Amino acid sequence: MDTPRPVTQAMPGGPGVPPSRPVRQPRTALLAVADDLREAGRAIASGADLIDVSGMAAAERAAIRDRYPRDCLWTGQAAGPVGAGRAAAPAGARPSVPAAGVFDADQAATAAGQPGGATVAAVVAAAAVGTWLGVAIIRTRHVPEVRRAIDMASAIAGTRPPALTVRGLA
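and the corresponding structure tokens:
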């Protein structure tokens, strides 16, 4: 009969050697789509790192620029679910998640084939998977929900500390 081995021997490095730490990756930024100053303010309050002002009129951009710092405004091109600078996936293929660039969680969830469009749950799931795979920027209209998904996936991946740790539940 086999004797059970201690757990420390099953860990990488053997007994007495601490497990290796995960490699820290840069934080995934949240790019919020906003149509006016009010939506931009709500997005920033909900945890958006950047505001997509590419579809706004010049007057709206100026109002947002006056109210919020310049470095939080993004005027780049909107990216599809496969990211900036990549060709669209062939019909029937799953979209790939870019390691760098902008990942549009709303479009990715819509491309997943939900009848009637993307649900918030599908957008959150797409954002969590994108974060897990290491995308640099996630673009969405669902800022509070996607911010929580990004933070959760980053904590599980070990790229940021968890928001709350509870020990000794008994």
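(Above: one complete record from the training split.) Residues 109 and 123 are 5 Å apart (CA to CA).
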